[in-house]
């Protein structure tokens, strides 16, 4: 089964899927190794890992496509990626969809902020008109070459124009042909319940560290019938915290002994990055080459 068909299977079946967020290829590999069936990759974690910067949309389509390609290439599970605003007008959006599809994304979502996009939990957001966002969405839908590529549309109208405006936009996104409509920032129990009642299609909740402490539990989300929940920045924060603790121990103690239990063992690291498979590939190719050379020599004698 392709990763895109696998993603649709995950989204369409009962139960709450947990979707950790990867910030690079190694974190994606670790998500898969822990048995998660899919993951997300977004701009917040990407900008943190690539530029050590907050997400104010200061990257570009090619950088993001390359970043997502490394993540998708490291795993065999579906990856749901953030296409921001599409990185420009409808022609830029066409190129972005083609690049993200080629990168291996199983699903993408595009938002209605003005360009450049910033994290939905940061102040200063502005949104485009509903007509402009719908034009973006139509461009996305037309640009995909694989009909199984899952398309999500996100609105930041909740923080800018209020709940009713966010609901209305989500309804229009679904009418236009999106597979999913996401009202950014709607993360309280009763509010999510209203979205589920008024917006058709699946619902994916978001529990970002940028939003502070979650307002609903995973059990509550499952009770509501939410399809999946993303944790887009948790691993970025976990990694940053682990690095800081290790560096503090080294500086204080001139040793990693105090944090040794937090470090991945060498054996586990090599298993994660596939060292033995690489060595076996080298041995196999070397043996094939030696056999061919020997056969050529034997035939010449």
TL;DR of this structure?
By secondary structure, the chain is an alpha/beta fold. It contains 13 helices and 8 strands. Helices cover 53% and strands 11% of the residues.
Characterization of this structure:
There is one protein chain. This protein has 301 residues and is an alpha/beta fold. The protein has 13 helices and eight strands. The strands form two sheets. It has a five-stranded parallel β-sheet with strand order 2-3-4-5-6. α10 (218-224) links the parallel β7 and β8. It is globular, with a radius of gyration of 22 Å. It starts with a helix and ends with a helix.
Helical content class:
40-55%
Question: What share of the residues does DSSP label as strand, in percent?
Answer: 5-15%
Average the pLDDT over all residues and give the rounded result: 94
Radius of gyration: 22 Å
The beta-strand count equals 8
Structural class: alpha/beta
Low-confidence stretches: none
Distance between the termini: 50 Å
Strands in their spatial order, largest beta sheet: 2-3-4-5-6
Order of helices and strands: HEHEHHEHEHEHHEHEHEHHH
Bulk shape: globular
Q: Describe the main β-sheet briefly.
A: 5 strands, parallel
Number of helices: 13
């Amino acid at each position: 089964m392709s990763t895109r068909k696998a993603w649709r299977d995950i989204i369409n079946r009962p139960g709450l899927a947990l979707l950790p967020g990867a910030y690079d290829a190694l974190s994606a590999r670790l998500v898969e190794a822990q048995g998660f069936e899919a993951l997300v990759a977004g701009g917040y974690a990407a900008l943190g890992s690539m530029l050590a910067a907050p997400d104010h949309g200061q990257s570009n389509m090619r950088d993001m496509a390359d970043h997502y390609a490394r993540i998708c290439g490291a795993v065999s599970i579906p990856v749901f990626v953030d296409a921001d605003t599409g990185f420009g007008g409808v022609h830029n959006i066409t190129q972005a969809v083609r690049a993200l599809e080629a990168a291996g994304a199983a699903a993408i979502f595009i938002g209605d902020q003005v360009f450049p996009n910033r994290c939905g939990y940061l102040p200063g957001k502005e949104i485009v008109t509903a007509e402009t966002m719908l034009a973006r969405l139509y461009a996305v839908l037309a640009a995909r070459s694989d009909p199984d590529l899952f398309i999500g549309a996100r609105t930041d109208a909740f923080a800018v124009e209020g709940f009713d405006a966010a609901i209305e936009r989500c309804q229009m996104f679904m009418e236009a042909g999106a597979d999913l409509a996401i009202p950014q920032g709607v993360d309280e129990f009763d509010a999510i319940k209203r979205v589920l009642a008024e917006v058709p299609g699946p619902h994916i909740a978001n529990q970002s560290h940028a939003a502070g402490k979650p307002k609903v539990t995973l059990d509550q989300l499952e009770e509501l019938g939410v399809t999946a929940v993303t944790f887009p920045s948790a691993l970025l924060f976990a990694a940053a915290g682990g690095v800081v603790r290790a560096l503090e121990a080294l500086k204080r103690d001139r040793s990693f002994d105090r944090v040794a239990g937090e470090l991945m063992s060498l054996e586990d690291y090599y298993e994660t990055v596939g060292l033995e498979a690489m060595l076996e590939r080298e041995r196999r190719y070397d043996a094939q080459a030696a056999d061919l050379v020997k056969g050529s020599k034997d035939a010449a004698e």
